[in-house]
Amino acid sequence: MSTLVRKGSLFASPGRDGLYPILSVRQLSAYYGELRALFDISFDVNPGEVLSIIGANGAGKSTLLRSIVGMMNRGKAAHISGSIEFEGRRLDRLTTEKIVDAGATMVPEGRMLFTRMTVAENLLVGAHLPKARASAHDKLAEMFDFFPRLAERRNQVVSQMSGGEQQMVAIARALMSSPSLVLFDELSLGLAPIIVDDIYEKVAEINKSGVTCVVIEQDMRRALAVSSHVLVMAEGRVVLEGAPGKLSEADITDAYFGSHRAGAVA
Asked: Distance between CA 118 and CA 126 in Å, rounded?
């Protein structure tokens, strides 16, 4: 684990559970112009875990993920302060492209696919960076093995696919860059429960393969079922944090709806 912390790291000592984190966020604030959306957020993500971030609409969850992958580094229009470190490297100073190349990527809310392109073409977009391009066709075959339904529809235009199939395309596209950290933004949004079950089974398989996962989820029970650690957000702040087995449902419910003010750590 110590190899994750490089010379010059801000966080060169073990953190939660005595592990060196793969991702460390410290005093992160985010702004849309003059509007402040995140307030001094700090947390760690340990290697190989599933961290779930839950909260109501408007809690700041998506802004947090956008900050991690460089989508809030847009000057005065959208900007951040604080630090984000991934495997010993500062991310808050990098572009989204360089962050993906470093090994951290996101499955965005709403999927953001190229709907007039085929499944295969969308997946190859995920391997456009030089480091991933060399093995793109091998990775494409791997994704079709992982998602057999996509293999059957590899030449189908994405706009003709169901919401669940499109979500599979979005996940597979993110995996095309061979990331060590994947951030999933609202995986279950707009999908039927049975499809959500299938998607979360795939997330579990991705995690078992050694990929660290961060999942944004509004469904509290589903988040607790899949995660090894949980953050609850309200009004741009982390208001509760802990292992699922050590947090009571009452505490989580209070935090979710904004009535829990203390940032407890279990």
From this structure: 13
Nearest CA-CA partner of 55 in 255, 198, 199, 229: 255
Output b/e per residue, 54-88; b: 16+ Cβ within 10 A.
Answer: bbeeebbbbbbbbbbbbbbbeeeebebebbbbbbb
What amino acid is encoded at 211 in this protein? V
pLDDT digits (tens, 9 = 90+) for 140-188: 999 999 999 999 999 999 999 999 999 999 999 999 999 999 999 988 8
pLDDT in tens, 78-125: 999 999 999 999 999 899 999 999 999 999 988 899 999 999 999 999
Cβ atoms within 10 A of the Cβ of 52, count?
Answer: 25
- Give the count of beta carbons closer than 10 Å to the beta carbon of residue 6: 12
Three-state secondary-structure class, residue 59? coil
Assign residue 203 the CATH number of its domain.
3.40.50.300
Residue that has been written with the tokens 């299938």 in this structure? 198
Asked if residue 48 and residue 119 are part of one domain, the reply reads no
